[in-house]
Each structure stands twice: as C-alpha cells, then as structure tokens.
Design a protein that fits this description.
Number of strands: 10
Radius of gyration: 16 Å
Number of helices: 7
Bound molecules: the ligand O=C(O)c1cccc(C(=O)CC[C@H]2O[C@@H](n3cnc4c(=O)[nH]cnc43)[C@H](O)[C@@H]2O)c1
Strand content: 25-35%
Number of domains: 1
CATH superfamily: Nucleoside phosphorylase domain
Helix content: 25-40%
CATH topology: Rossmann fold
Length: about 220
C-alpha cells in the first residue's frame, strides 16, 4: 500500500511528484483537506497519510523560514466557543468531533514521527490547524499560551488527520516554515526554502515507512 501525501496547492505537490507515494492536491483549508483525503482513501487504501506543506512558525518556537517541523500531535486549534473574551475548548464544552466517543480535535500521530525527526534534525511538536492565517502578535501569543510548545500553524493538518482517523490509517504532518506567525508580511515569506524543507521531511518519512514495511 503506497503512502498518501496530501498538499493544499499544486506548487506544494510539484516537488513531491517523483517520490514513491500517491500525491493529491486538496485545495486550501481544513474542510477541503478532509474531503479530499476521505475521497482518496475510499478510492485506494494507504498505509500512511502525510499532510505536507508550508506553514507559519510561532515566534517562541525559534523556528525560521526554511526550517522543518514534524507533528507529535495535530491540533484543530480553533474548535470551541468564545464566551466574551474567554475561549472555551471542546473539553470545557463537553463536545466531540466524533458522533459516538469523546474527541476534542487533538489527533495522535504515526509512532515513527520521532525517528523521522531524528534523521532530519527537524523539530517535533504540536502543529496547529486553523481556518484562517493568524495576522497579529496578540493572536499568535494567545495561541502560544493556549498550546504551549506549539511549533507551527497551517490550514489543513487536522482535516487530513480526521479523515485518516476515520479510515484507521496513521498520519503525520510535515511543515516547511515559510513565515513567522504574526502581523501579515506576505513579501517576507520564503516559499522556495519552505518547499525544500517540506520535501526533505516527506522523503525521510517515506524512507522510514519503507524500512518499517520491509521489516514486517
Ligand atoms: O496573504 C496573502 O496575500 C496570501 C497569498 C497567498 C497565500 C496565502 C496563504 O495564506 C497561504 C495559506 C496556505 O499556506 C499555509 N500557510 C502558510 N503559512 C501559514 C500561516 O502562517 N498560517 C496558516 N497557514 C499558513 C496554509 O496551510 C495554507 O495552505 C496568503
């Protein structure tokens, strides 16, 4: 079973097409990503799902454009309710993303993620998914405080993880850092460096997956 790689845009797919995996382009955002992943897994099963692409790094992570982040956990960070200026998450609200069991939108990942991080020198930590790009230092600080140790944000990971969970397939998120999370400064985004980092992470994940598959 080939691994499935899900990216948001054709530019993110371009550098991955020669790898030994099926690559699909979902479109941007958590819903587009979930739907595309669910459809792809229904068409053809996969042994591993990789959510890959560029992302923003939280200032306290110390990550810079061109660096690589891998998920130890994938968190759907904007699930909840505002009560005045207090944010209540699904734990507080007693809500679940699943119909018949508790799940707050914090997704466990593939057990080999630490090995991929070791081989690449990537940082391993929580990767957040949001429906919009954070555009202020205040919001970045709020998210860092709610999710201590969070490395990056993107817009697709949790949707891909949700579809993978329903299909019973392990998932990993790989983000090459293109920008710092904070005030919008699109001109400073370093996309080629981020795409190169993404490829490095995905290639290492496939290497580990192939070794694991050969040993069983
Ligand atoms: O602000 C703009 O002008 C603009 C123009 C083109 C693209 C964008 C995006 O925001 C792309 C979102 C896309 O890239 C991922 N991404 C990259 N950096 C971040 C971030 O700091 N926060 C959230 N998502 C980010 C995301 O996964 C999307 O696929 C903006």
């Amino acid at each position: 079973m080939l691994p499935l790689i899900v990216v948001a845009t054709p530019a993110e797919a371009e550098r991955l097409l020669d790898l030994n995996a099926r690559v699909i382009v979902s479109g941007v955002g958590v819903v587009a990503a979930a739907l595309a992943t669910a459809r792809a897994l229904a068409e053809q099963n996969a042994g591993l799902v990789i959510s890959a692409g560029i992302g923003g790094a939280y200032p306290s992570s110390g990550l810079l454009p061109g660096d690589l982040a891998l998920s130890s956990e994938i968190i759907q960070a904007d699930l909840g309710a505002w009560d005045g200026n207090q944010f209540l998450d699904f734990d507080d609200l007693g809500l679940s993303i699943l119909p018949d069991s508790p799940h707050t939108g914090r997704f466990a990942v593939w057990a080999a993620a630490p090995e991929v991080a070791r081989r690449t020198g990537a940082r391993l930590g929580s990767l957040l998914t949001l429906s919009s790009v954070t555009g202020s230092s205040e919001t970045a600080a709020f998210l860092e405080q709610r999710f201590p140790g969070a490395l990056t944000e993107g817009m697709e990971g949790a949707g891909i993880a949700h579809a993978a969970l329903l299909a019973g397939v392990p998932v990993l998120e790989v983000r090459g850092v293109s920008n710092a999370v904070g005030p919008r400064d699109r001109a400073s985004w370093q996309i080629p460096q981020a795409l190169a980092a993404t490829r490095r992470g995905v290639a290492a994940a496939l290497e580990v997956w192939e070794e694991e598959s050969e040993s069983v």
